[in-house]
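Lecture notes, structural biology module. Today: joint structure prediction for complexes of two components.
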Amino acid sequence: MYRTDMYEGMLAETVVIPGVDEELINAYFARPMGAGPFPGMVVVHHLPGWDEWYRETTRKFAHHGYAALSPNLYFRTGHGTPENIAAKVRADGGVPDEQVVGDLRGALQYLKGLPYINGKVGIFGTCSGGRHAYLAACQVEGFDAVVDCWGGRVVMPPESLTTSFPVAPIDYTSQLSCPILGLFGEEDTSPSPEQVVQHEAELKKYGKTYKFHMYPGAGHGFFYYHRPNYRQQQAVEGWDKIFSFLDRYLNGK
Amino acid sequence: MCTMIAERVEIEGSGKGNDGWITISQANVSYDHPFNAPLEHALNIDFVNEALGFDARVAVELSAQSARSLIETIQNVLEQAETEGHL
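The predicted structure, tokenised, for the full assembly:
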């Protein structure tokens, strides 16, 4: 909890990290000043790309005491405005799951290797980033908490599986290695409330530690203050739930 | 990607982008989150020329109803042009 007599400082900058197959990609990194130790957070951007909202969110985690790293999952597409790069990725049908998971593994290893990390690292994502965060938490050993905000396509019908998306994330649930917090909107269509219930049932089936919240009056992306889907009350409550959850699993509070 | 509903089509024409007119060679059509339109999902069309780089893009984001109206209007105009012997 911030107090008015506390020192506060932050370092935020673009860095280079190893991604899948040790190939270098860029990432946005924000951390509190000081010796730490700080828990780490991997911040996984959404469909609209590695954009301003994600830079702000990365700094928000740093403001709350986390060393936060947001890898550019669209690095290999090329460089331009975040929107033009995201539009190209959309036209290409997205980035393959295996590549994303490899990049997120690299982000985890980067954070774990820093001298001021307390040994705990979580992962957060919204929209496609929520789906990617869940995939990584299931497939990569070493995450201590995952926050999935309205990740679509966790549940996928067999006909939508492709070489880039060969397995529905829900089918990796038995491998989930950390507690999960899920935030969803009742008016969302991707994921629909029925899909969220299906996901929850799978977590229960495998005895996972989970907490899902379904918000009435909210749809997809209700944290995005620059979009019409923003819902002030649900967003404030949702952020509170995120930081309480992370405090418990990454800070031992 | 939340819907993954996207297709591309080769086209011929021109579009006016940030830096003036560009030759358009492809349209990328999707139904997914828009960047700007105040909608959860939109019919998005990116008119692009990939040979000219990522900035060679003219984008529109339409409501589903607007997109259907546009299709109908384009068809009507083309039929009229055909009827009058211009095609």
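Point to remember: Chain B has a mean pLDDT of 95.
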